[in-house]
Amino acid sequence: TIRAVVRGVGHYLPERVVPNSEFEKTLDTSDEWIRSRSGIERRHFAAEGEATSDLATHAARAALRDAGLEPQDIDAIVVATSTPDFTFPSVATMVQGNLGMTSGFAFDVQAVCAGFVFALSNANAMIQTGQARRVLVIGAETFSRIMDWTDRGTCVLFGDGAGALVLEAQEGTGTNADRGILSMDLNSDGRHRDILYVDGGPSSNQSTGVLRMQGKEVFRHAIEKLAQTAHTSLARAGLSPEDVTWIVPHQANLRIIKGTAQKMGLDMDRVVVTVQDHGNTSAASIPLALSVGKERGQIHEGDVIVTEAIGGGLAWGSVVLRW
Ligand code: ACO
Question: pLDDT class for 1, splitting at 50, 70, 90?
Fold first, then answer.
């Protein structure tokens, strides 16, 4: 059988780090409130003129370096983002241009915070059906561009960043026999549009809009749905929670991350947590956490990893892979 195996990983964070204390200057909030409610201590914000495609290109180059590959070795680029530079073209084709690739194909996937899980599923399907042998899967966001800076309930929670994986088709033989993407589960429920959305767009009011969220409502759905999807994809892989080396969750909120691990019956020492340093980077958070988790020496070849995410739509899902 052909499996989509992780051959490289990388990430990029904009230079500017913004600690919680900076919000105390302009909002009725505190470092203590933000930390205790979300686990977030700081986040990165892109510089003026630094766009999502720039972040994505940096992360792509880092993943290619890690894989020991050149841009021309890649057949396809999938970028998960809800904050593209332009309405069109896709961020993915801009990355393709930046990398100097003149063949292959590229497109974006939009499932907000669950975008990377949906992109992985897509890339896996293209590899399994022989449409591509090597796929760059990128999550890249500049949520700082869609914040309402007067809304303390949202603007303290998000950050900018990008992460990328190189997936490669490998025959399941020898030591690689059980590596790669093993299973997945995708879901959405459009009835919940109003609890998390951006109030602008080309076909509504021709503005960029800002993020609107009923935090408590999102929270209420999150733990239940994340634990459920993780169980479903693990069962599809013939695995149970005890087989999991690492949960690499979407990094939205430490309380959601802890609640989900607890519901799965797993201790926090099996969870890769980066939310304290990155805030919620939406579709970028999982590949960022995978890259940082590897850099920290947490993630090793052969580890069983469950990634799970939920976001606007609602859209949610999970992927099980052996690193
Ligand atoms: N500083 C100080 N006070 C604040 C702040 C702030 N930054 N933000 C809100 N408050 C106030 C509220 O106004 C409210 O005051 P009130 O009681 O006088 O009205 C009070 O704090 C409590 O607000 P709650 O909403 O009850 O606080 P809660 O404990 O639910 O925490 C939070 C809010 C952090 C948004 C939480 O609901 C949450 O994490 N929800 C999930 C949202 C999320 O993670 N979304 C990310 C996108 S989707 C995803 O990726 C999962």
Answer: confident
